[in-house]
Design brief:
Elements lengths: L5 E10 L4 E8 L5 E8 L3 E7 L4 E9 L4 E5 L2 E3 L6 H13 L1 E12 L10 E11 L10 E7 H10 L5 H15 L9
Parallel strand pairs: 4-9
Antiparallel strand pairs: 1-2, 2-3, 4-5, 4-7, 5-6, 5-10, 8-9
């Protein structure tokens, strides 16, 4: 069965610093016309930095759309065309002061594929050293270390609501439980 939708036209309704919003006229697989609202976003990167003591470097920061402080792995927006690993290294150092010797790519995540084209790249960082934090001028956050086992509990109980953090923590725990965590024993 053909599932592909054909783009006929695109009308940009808003072009901003971080996102663009467009409305596309499309043709459905059955030939009927329809519209799609699309948020364009340059994407992001998140990094779970794992210490030798099996603690993950986390950050708490106020997330305006939800009007609450959210616990999440360090993350940030990619510049358009920026290599995801370079972005991840920068964000980890800025938000936690950590620099890793080893980065393991853990996959890509589509946060809301129904309307947003954002892709988030996930990394595990190990073999850590520390420098001074250097957050962006408009970034206010509180770093902390939390045992991986506790983060798994917090994810399963619903305490951690951030999707990228949930996915990355559960991927790391799955590898750990299978004895396949890079550079780590079961």
């Amino acid at each position: 069965m053909n599932l592909k939708e054909e783009t006929l036209s695109q009308d940009y309704k808003y072009q901003g610093r971080i996102i663009n919003l467009r409305v596309d006229d499309i043709r459905l697989p059955n030939g009927n016309p329809a519209k799609r609202e699309v948020v364009e976003h340059p994407g992001g990167v998140c990094v779970a930095a794992l210490t030798d003591d099996m603690e993950v470097l986390m950050v708490r920061q106020f997330r305006y759309p939800y009007q609450e402080v959210v616990l999440e792995v360090p993350a940030g927006k990619r510049e358009r065309g920026e290599d995801p690993l370079i972005c991840g290294k920068r964000e980890l150092r800025e938000e936690t002061g950590a620099v890793a010797q080893t980065y393991t790519f853990m996959g890509e995540l589509y946060p809301s594929p129904g309307y947003c084209g954002e892709v988030i790249y996930l990394y595990l960082a190990t073999d850590l050293t520390f420098e001074a934090m250097d957050p962006d001028e408009d970034e206010f956050l509180e770093p902390e270390r939390i045992p991986l086992s506790r983060l798994v509990e917090m994810t399963l109980s619903g305490e951690i609501k951030d999707a990228k953090t949930q996915a990355l923590i559960l991927k790391i725990e799955t590898l750990r439980a299978a004895g396949r965590l890079p550079g780590r024993e079961k």
